[in-house]
Design brief:
Low-confidence stretches of chain A: none
Number of strands of chain A: 9
Strand order of the largest sheet of chain A: 2-5-9-1-4
CATH topology of chain A: Pyruvoyl-Dependent Histidine Decarboxylase, Chain B
Distance between the termini of chain A: 5 Å
CATH superfamily of chain A: Pyruvoyl-Dependent Histidine Decarboxylase, subunit B
Mean pLDDT of chain A: 97
CATH class of chain A: Alpha Beta
Largest sheet of chain A: 5 strands, mixed
Order of helices and strands of chain A: EHEEEEEEHEE
Number of helices of chain A: 2
Oligomer: homotrimer
Radius of gyration of chain A: 15 Å
Chain lengths: 147, 147, 147
Amino acid sequence: MKVSITSGRAEGPTKLNAFDNALLDANIGNVNLIKVSSILPSGTEVVPIPKFPAGDMVNCVLAYTSSDVEGDLITAVVAAATSDDFGCVVENTGVNRDLEDVKSEAKSMVQYMMDIRGLKIKEMLMADETHIVKKQGAVVAAVVYIG
Amino acid sequence: MKVSITSGRAEGPTKLNAFDNALLDANIGNVNLIKVSSILPSGTEVVPIPKFPAGDMVNCVLAYTSSDVEGDLITAVVAAATSDDFGCVVENTGVNRDLEDVKSEAKSMVQYMMDIRGLKIKEMLMADETHIVKKQGAVVAAVVYIG
Amino acid sequence: MKVSITSGRAEGPTKLNAFDNALLDANIGNVNLIKVSSILPSGTEVVPIPKFPAGDMVNCVLAYTSSDVEGDLITAVVAAATSDDFGCVVENTGVNRDLEDVKSEAKSMVQYMMDIRGLKIKEMLMADETHIVKKQGAVVAAVVYIG
């Protein structure tokens, strides 16, 4: 299994379009995303995000939040931990929360998931995105399963 | 890729059953629906909805809303735009909103998605359904990916 | 098609971790769950839950609820009905509701789904889980599609 980690942010005229624009900013706007929960198979390799054929069905763990309140600070984070065996992924989001807090919360959650499974973390990968809303903003962070 | 566009509405004794009845009314009640986001691959052909084997796993973009307030007007809409390259799909719903408003909002959202990708719309396809709630009502509209 | 029915409950330091721990308790914590709606193909066989390779993509119908209020009684139920043709599945959850009520509601909902399709129930299978929250609790019940 190969996975990519990515994130994006955008404004848009509607909530849906801001979300779509954020997906485009993250280079996953031209595929059909299927949300899954949160395990990396053994031997997962992290690679740069490929150029998917438009309309591909793509499994992903997705952190997403949006707001239409001017000045809101919105944040989306994914954290992926690998081990010599399999790995775990968490998503986390925040509105008007410090980025470092949202990231550190994601880190502890994935650390806990690994601990409880008896897995020793080899590598911790994160993607995060913040955005200060103008009119209608969205942020996404994602772990994308490539196959 | 072939897709079908469909919609349905129903009453039911519970929220879950009203939803299920609306799916049956849309001819997608006997499959396992997997929700995806919103791109039509290049060369997508729109066909009448086929008779799926019961229990098939079927990817779809789904607009769904429900209400248990007598007299509520509930609406579900999907709009799909095709081009010479790939296409885009949006879902939209409304409670006590004019059908034409919900449809026109869906149209502008998908138009915006196509514009931002530099895609010229060849065809715009919509499905919509409205229902005035008696006790527990549901409406669905869907773009179903057939494979 | 083979399916398994399972359930689990747990506490955890965060909502996400309590959910993840409940999935582990249900033996579906090490896979990527994809939520689907609710039909069992003809000839479905119910089997004990297998040991999935970590990170498998697994379709499921999932009932899930959580609470961080000490003393809350949380409940998750799935009910699956089979016939000589295909079958139906419902999920149901409750907070501070009698387990038997949540189960009996699930039973009537799946009974109704079978009736409306003209299917005669051969077997009714249920999984249920209740938990009294200490700090942050979660319960899950699931029908897992094995393939």
